[in-house]
Amino acid sequence: MAAYRRVFLAAAAGAFITAALSPAGLAFDGPETSALAAAKPLQMFKDPHQALQSALESYRSGNPASSVEALKYAAAGGEALAQWKLGRMYADGDGVPRDDYKAYQYFQGIVDNYDEDTANWREKSVVASAFVAVGLFNLKGISGNRLQADAEAAQRLFMYAATHFSDSNAQYQLARLYLDGAAGVPRNHMQAARWLNLAAEKNHVESQALLGQLLFSGDGVPAQRARGLMWMTLAREGAGGKTQDWIRAQYEQAIHAANDADRQAALVYLEDHLKRRY
């Protein structure tokens, strides 16, 4: 059994609501999967992997609802990408009714079945994303008493994905947890800055923005105004749609608060950073 499963499952066992899981402990749609197997509507697929490929083609063609049954067949057969895709679809209400608990179950299934000794590293990003998703569900909880909020469990999940997979999203979420603090996880801006820096170096835009703000303001860390302005400049250049308008607004506020020495030094840092990167 993987080291993670030995440590995490023992520590977080109380956080999982096993009564809602199938008798075998699989975090899938137990009744739906059983009915699916009984009806045998997917005999056209020779194996779960072929079902996964067919489902992804259907999804990409703009028919997410029509891909659901094939994805469930593939997920029940152990295809991690199918489990992850169903998790995202239920979390977003994409082709299925939104259901956070079903989403959580699919992501948790990936976490539970992960064994670092036999892992397929081609699925690294899928597994890391599942750890982050389960961490976020643990952090916020799920309504109806289906999952109680547990910041310490979220911290363990983020930490594992941040260290074992070096995943930038996990590093960002771990940093946010240290910035905000929660029950069992005290605020620690120095730790937050450390994880933000690791993610920022991987061009994680939100991490660049938050790290820049921390350094520019000196909030709980030694102030480095020019270096902070550099990170916010990079974040502004990489910011996407309206959901990242806060990054552009943050940059504008900082650039107006900066003096000439800050701006000139930030430009030097920026040029050096780009030389190292490219």
Automatic annotation (TrEMBL):
Keywords: Signal. Residues 1-27 form the signal peptide. SUPFAM superfamilies: HCP-like. SMART domains: SEL1. InterPro entries: Sel1-like, Sel1_AlgK, TAT_signal, TPR-like_helical_dom_sf. GO terms for biological process: ERAD pathway. It holds the Pfam family Sel1. This is Sel1 repeat family protein.
